[in-house]
Structure formats: C-alpha cells, structure tokens
Amino acid sequence: MSGSICAFSAIPVRLEPGETSALETQILFGEVFHTLEVIPGWHRVRLDFDGYEGWVDEKTVIPATDKDVELWEKTPGVVIAAPFVKLIREPFKSVQIISAGSRIAFNGEDRNSFVLSGQEYYLQNNLSDRKPDLEEVAKGFLSASYLWGGRTFFGIDCSALAQVVFKIMGYSLPRNASQQVECGAMIDFVEEARAGDLAFFDDEAGTIKHVGICLGQGRILHASGEVCMDYLDHQGIFSRARQKYTHHLRVIKRIIE
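User: That's the sequence. What structure does it adopt?
Assistant: Structure tokens below.
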C-alpha cells in the first residue's frame, strides 16, 4: 500500500473511477493518503486523516517513500487557519493557493519555506504565531459556496466545514455528519450551547442530514447554499435570508470541553 502526500491545492475524491462520478470528498494540500487499488487511469485511495476511501485521477498521485511520509508527518508544521494562503513555487515563481485545513511542514531553510515532493515552496506572507480562535476561523468561511463533497474555502459542505474548522483547532472529526454525531457529549438544552458545540439536524425519517457550528448567543454557522450565520433555538435553524425554519434540531454535542 503506497503512500502519497497531496501536493495539489485539493484532489477530488470520487465515488467511482470516472470524471463524471460524484464528488465524495477532497484531499487537502499536505494531507497523506494511501493507494489501495490501481486500474488504468485511477487509484482507489484512503485518506489518513479520516479514513475516507474513494477514487482519484492517477495524475494527482505522486508516490512517496515510507520515510518521506513519516518525515512529513513528524516534522513540526502548521495547519492553515486563514481561509486561504498563497504559495510561491520555484523555479518559475508560479502561485498556488491552498485552503484552510491544509498542512505544511517546516522542513525548509526557515519558517517561510518548505519542500514537498521535490518542489520548493515559499509562503507569500508570514504565518501568524497566534493560537487560532474557533469563532474567527469559522467566520473565515462565511459566504463560501456550498459544494457537496467540498472541503475548501472555494466550495464546502456542512460536515466538511465542521471537520476542517476542528482540524485547525487540533481535533479530528469523521467526514460525515452521520458519523460526527457519535462524537462528544450531549447537551440537554439549546440554551446551554456555547461556541464550538456542534448542532445536528435530521429529516422526517430521523436521519442526520445536516450539522452546524454553534457560536453561542443563539448563533449558528453552517453551509446551506453558502456558509452563513443563522439563528438556533429548540426547533432548529431559523434562516435570516429565508425568514423561516429550514432545519429540524435533533441534538447538540460538545466536542471541546
């Protein structure tokens, strides 16, 4: 089972091997994944971060040795907290934009440079040493477009929004809302919800279909059409834009104690 480190801004992971197949998730820059199966033009892979499996185009797979992967994962680095940052790629000084949740390792000459898959990169701007603030990180996604299977500022779904924000804060969540609801401790009353709690919403059949990040004071940030800020009460989400309830509250879970 060969390993790779994502050197693209984001790699689409599809349900089946084909460009028209549904987007299931994305691999972010600096995330590690392993090839499970190979067919002409496609690799079936598993992401190390959340165990998600799917198919990626063979052109996006840059094989790495076990040592390369181990060094990348063990070398001190940072998970990008800003909505996106610009990288300068040598030798042609081309620009590559990577999204929040991407990871870089400080294996270059200084904190502003690093090497990945033989490619030398420079950060266009210095990274902040300040500890990320959850509300600030979450609000950085405001107005980002909704994209089923997306995990970046340029397109993201509800469960990826929760997963990426918590990744930046140092917590690992599963990929899907139906899995995330199994995490954390239950909150009995919506009035007790605080910033960083996750609220889950179900359909008429009782299936968990949606998740949002509580920000306290009756506010919730979630991806529905776009990433937006709405109101949360015991019934569910009341949409500011649509002036009606759009999601039925099932449960609130506390991930960060």
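The longest strand covers residues 244-254.
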